[in-house]
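Hey all, sorry for the wall of text incoming. These are the four entities for the joint prediction.
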Amino acid sequence: MLSIGYVLKRLLQIIPTLVFIVVVTFLIVRLLPGDPASAILGDKATDAEVARLHAEMGLDRPLIVQFGNFALRVVQGDLGTSTAVKLPVGRIVLDRLPATLLLTVMAAFLALLLAVPLAFVAALRQGRLGDTVIQGCFQVGLSMPVFYVGLILLTVFAAGLRWFPVGGYGDTYLLHLYHLFLPALTLALSLAAVLMRNLRTAILDALTADYADFARAKGLPTRVVLFRHVLRNALISTVTLFGLNIGTLLGGAVITETVFAIPGAGRLMIDSIYARDYPTIQGLTLVLAVLVSVAFLLTDLVQASLDPRVAQ
Amino acid sequence: MSAGALPFEPAKATPTRRRKLALPGALIAGLLILAFSLTLAFFPSLFAPFDPLKFDYKAILKPPSLAHPFGTDNFGRDMLSRTIHAYTLDMQIAFFATIVPMLAGTAIGTIVGYYGGLLETLFGRLVDGVITFPFIVLVIAIVAVLGPGLANMYVAIGLVGWVFYARLVAGEMKVQKRLDYADAGRVMGYGDMRIAFRHLLPNAVSPALVYWMTDMALCILLGTSLGYLGLGAQPPAAEWGVLIAGGKNFFTTAWWISIFPGIAIVLTGLGFSLLGNGLAELMKVKR
Amino acid sequence: MSTLLSVSGLTTRLLTPAGLLAAVEDVDFTLDERDSLGLVGESGSGKSVTMRSLLRLLPQRAEVEGSVRWRGRELVGLPENALRALRGREIAMIFQEPMSALNPVLRIGLQIEESLKVHTDLDRAGRRARAVELLALTGIPTPERRLDDFPHQFSGGMRQRAMIAIALAASPALLLADEPTTALDVTIQDQILHLLARLRREMGMAMILVTHDLAVVAESCERVAVMYAGRIVERGTVRQVFAAPRHPYTLGLLRSVPDGDRPRQKLRSIEGTPPGLGNRTRGCAFQPRCGFATAQCATDRPPLADIAPGHAAACWQAGRLTDLSREAA
Amino acid sequence: MRYRWSALIALVAAMHVGTAAAVERGGVMTFGRYADSLFLDPASTEVNVDIWILSNLYDTLILPSDDGKGLQPGLATSWSFSGDNKTLTLKLRDGIKFSDGSPITSADAKWSLDRTRNPDTGAWASLYESIDSIAAPDPSTVVINLKHPDPALLPVLTAFASAVMPSKLIEATAGATLADKVKAFAEHPVGSGPFKLQSWKHDAEMKLVPNPYYWRMGEDGKPLPYLDGVTFEVIPDDATRILRLKSGELDASEFIPYARVEELKNDSSLNMELFPSTRIEYVALNVRPELDGKPNPLANPKLREALNYATDKDAIVGIVTHGVGTPMTSFMSTATPLHVGDKPLYPVDVDKAKQIMHEAGLDKGVKVTLMTLAGNEDEVGIATALQQMWKEIGVDLEIQQIDNATRTAAYRAGTFPSRLSLWTDDIADPSEITSWALYYPAVQSFHTGWKNDKAVEIFQASQKEMDPAKRQEEYKQLQEIFNSEGPTVPLYETPYPVALAKRVQGFNQLPLGNNLFAQAWLKK
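and here's what came out:
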């Protein structure tokens, strides 16, 4: 169903988006008040030291030159050195990225795991108790701030029942998953609420669609009618919605990582902004933008494979 | 915003069959809650028993009691009054943070959707750029540039929020412009702008209006996240996000500080989504 | 020929905002093997609900009463999986909107093979061959290549042919056709009707055709039942009913259809609209719009009584209708 | 006059009583931190997150005493000033080695101190400006020649920036410039302190293990440290950090929010320690006559005096620190040497404040702006309290919440209207804070533009005064001047709130903030 041409077309479309993001980040960072050199050296540094660092960071050169250098080096894969921790940005980002990736992927997985079955139950029991309870719970879930949900889960399941560790990230791969379950669940709740509501409406429409009647008239078992005919059609709009919310999922990771003490890229971004660590902000934003674009492309391709009318 | 994950949920308009059970009930319930919220927002002092800013050193961290139904915070201020007065700020956030993006987005969406072609591809890339960029990071960066405070938060949200409305309206406009009544307009000699805005837009705007309701709830949540990061409303003003963030450290000892503003957010959010569902129902739009 | 299907006292209630309301009331008719019955009436007359009630293809909380005997076996109250085994294998159904009745995201081949998989024990290759056969049977050119196409790659007429192919996969004994031609333009409509006629002959299949188009009934069906406000008001062979309609509603319908061989004649429409589900009166439902109504029509409902062998009508004036209509002409 | 310090050392050691319980060795202590270190180079780092743990990786020639106020021998066993107090000779301990086994020599000490005192490579060069040159006549002797007598030299030598580093190893590390070499070296540092760095996953976990060649002996006669290792975990959210401590996954947690100190005190499984600190909180008021073109109301000393009397320190201590803090008795903390003053400054007197406002003709009220740190709970609390208190006397305080970088830039440029400030001493000597507070030529007195010629004169004299009694007297006068007309509103001092699991013994945090694990041990 997926023609190679379509995939290539979509891949090429990412390039202009990335250029747009790099330029925007470069400019926004330069607009941040407070000179990075003074941000790094803090209250007690003398003006001479600030001036020296300022020059060392090349901030005194005109913007275009700075951008030229930055773009040139990015092409060669060098994202510069972090002014806060004095390490290559590439290495820091690579070091911090897995935690955020794992967290967001797990959150996305949990969100789907929660949303799909519950949307089905809510749709099949439309208007009855089951439907209102599910919608009510998700409404509350959607309105609770992430850090609050995180705190409750931590207190009850981690500190209280000891089912999970209290934050942290663990060393081995398995421990990562064990540590990331609660934060992923926290992050997943709000996304699941959105997906569930959209999917429920889509399933309701699919249930009453002619092809569902026809499928039942053909005497197909209910399982086939529900999954092959109803769900497959309903998922199309939900996959698009999922794609749109990837950027938001990443945004949510920022707070979740702070609450659960996870050494992820989200927290690195916030710390870098506060420390006016230009190289890290730029490098991290570029990397995150690439990843989100790829994820966005993947959901697009999934949608195209689900809905043949798009891929032509 | 929360930096908390603030999920965005644009409605998608596809031709639907008339559903058997119309649900005007959702719309009525939504309007009731909205009315309740607006009354509290415009006349908080009528309902709030105390001055929301007044300290009372002797009444620090008091649990809910007759004198203070919602208890007091770590400054000895009455939580019921602060939660009520927060309605003013939060309803402002809900309205001001979304009205400009909604109007701007709808206008841009109409033009892009109507003309299509190169304009549309450019717009497509811009939308991808904005959606791909972690929204919360953009807001924090912008607020860091302009300094914290609600006005700057509106600017930050506005800079990004319009994209979702534009994308919705453009999508719907592409459907409407192919229908016969669009050609009828051309036959009558109307200019493009008149057709697009006077005739096509009223039919294309419904998903955006429905999304506007959800957007309002999401912006309040965004205020909460910014409150947590200290970039939201400035002290000593009362805003739910700031109240909850403030109560975080007393989470086990003084649970009431965060619980009641939390309930207020849930109630208001519920109001908005009911309104959204009701509107969708009314205009036969798939939420 | 033995009776294939006999329906008596069929009543179906649907859930509406105003609660459970009867969409179909007290419907009786029978259908023999290879026979074809036209269910005709305006929209909202309950013809489509009647057909769907046979296979219980109704929304979740609808209620069906009365008796539907299929080859002597009672279907009302049959457990869902027993009824499901019967759907598609013995009784098949096709719909009005081919574009929305075919699953837009599945290949046509798959939509045929899934039926064969349930009702036959053909292996994969056997099913694929049978699918090609069916497409060819319904007149689709180069069926081998079209198997892997999607519904949106078919034209209107082709989609209807594909749907018929899918329905007939398990060579059912009865085909229920819910307004199969309404969505098509006239030339294609005619092809489809001829196709249905040919398939019925070749497969010895009975058919119930729901339509609001009397011409379609005249061309495709041997017997006809006219429905109004959820009830059958007249039933008989096409020839009997079209020649001497015994119910004012049927008469009105026939008069609003141009008759090719008669010279220019004034077409007359029936004033007013059929009553909604909620407000059905005690007397004859057609009374408010009936030109021949008497006091009695408003108070008690006329039973569906035989006027001639095989020809019945539910109207107090049934006997005298032909001479009355001549006077009023 | 030869003045040998060694006599004094014996006295100090005797005072150090320490618990008599038998020390138990072994075990790894996990310590929850609110933020991760950034760059562990003693000479160039500026931030407390680095400074407070460096003393576990590097020793200095002279070590601070356990109460942080005095001195005790470090890598040097003894030291003495020449008659004219312009030359300090230090004798190195013999047989001392770096954590890679290579010997520590006077050349390393000279190289390290030269790098720290050179403004181009050392962030703290200003503290060492009295040093003229350093000589290493033989491997175990270091001779420091001074431009003028410097009473603060010995405390400065105990500071983290005076850490002795392996000069040969660093010079040999690959790197174009010295700065690059140090950056490379800092990733796998070799130090002279009780521990060495084993692994460091930024913003998550840092593991220290004992330095096998460490010279110092524990109470049981075997080399320190008692622990098998220290693991730092970075948990920025206070609530999560405390939850993790209470569930036993952490042995200790720093920066307990004041609001929860009381709660943890009552927790039987924990020791809620409040280590004395040099941490002070105050409002810095810009006194320049004009601020971006408009007349600056705070230039009027009367207004400043009124603000001081209108500020109820006890209330702020109650509200913001929940009683953990204490009002300030001088512009420097009580834990700073030569501190004078026993009663709180400007006890609250709202009527007097109104009276002063009236005398100054400011009855119709005045508008003041205060810069506070976005997201910082304590500062929000203080600002909100001040806003309400100052409103009583007609001062309308506008709170401007901005992020740290923006405030630092305005502070350094002297364009800030007023700001909340936090300060911790970096050396166990009052000269650092005093030069910042009132020695105008340094940073214009906390960048406020306040100038008092008499204070400047006395300070310059004190910088060369070797006679402790005379220096004490000079600092007494300096404090009297500043405390009476200084450009600040002193608020409170607070201890370091560190919660320790019951099994943790011997952990210490100096008033300067250094977290010392050398003598920490875990009771089984």
